[in-house]
Amino acid sequence: MITAVVFVKADVARIPEVAEQIAGLDGVSEVYSVTGHIDLIAMVRVRDHDDIAAVVADQLNKVVGVQSTETHIAFRTYSQHDLEQAFSIGSTTS
């Protein structure tokens, strides 16, 4: 599984509609409305690198109201859930 984090600059008047359309795309697992220099963050989870291009370049960038995107591909995932599993390896419970 490949995860890409896509920063989206959108037409401010259309942010909710843009977010809903992006969230409905195959390969997009969630979309966050955020503060700062970008308007939305889309999490893309796909099987291979070619699928990232299919989602981002072929679909997401064509959503009406998307002005620009910046895509970051994740190398590794760290989460509290992962840390809890790592510490439980080899431990015994009474």
Can you tell me about this structure?
The chain has 94 residues and is of the alpha+beta class. It has one domain: Alpha-Beta Plaits, CATH 3.30.70.920. It has helices spanning 15-23, 49-56, 80-88, and strands at residues 2-10, 28-33, 40-46, 66-73. β2 and β3 (40-46) form a beta hairpin. The chain is globular and about 35 Å long. The model has no long low-confidence stretch (mean pLDDT 90).
The CATH superfamily appears as: Lrp/AsnC effector binding domain/regulation of amino acid metabolism (RAM) domain
Specify the oligomeric state.
single chain
CATH fold label: Alpha-Beta Plaits
Number of individual domains: 1
| Lateral arrangement of strands in the main beta sheet | 2-3-1-4
Give the termini separation: 36 Å
The count of strands amounts to 4
Mean pLDDT: 90
Q: Roughly how many Å is the radius of gyration?
A: 16 Å
Low-confidence stretches: none
The general outline is: globular
Structural class by SSE content: alpha+beta
What is the secondary structure topology, with strand pairs?
Elements: E1 2-10, H1 15-23, E2 28-33, E3 40-46, H2 49-56, E4 66-73, H3 80-88
Antiparallel strand pairs: 1-3, 1-4, 2-3
Question: Summarize this, please?
Answer:
The protein is an alpha+beta fold. The protein contains three helices and four strands.
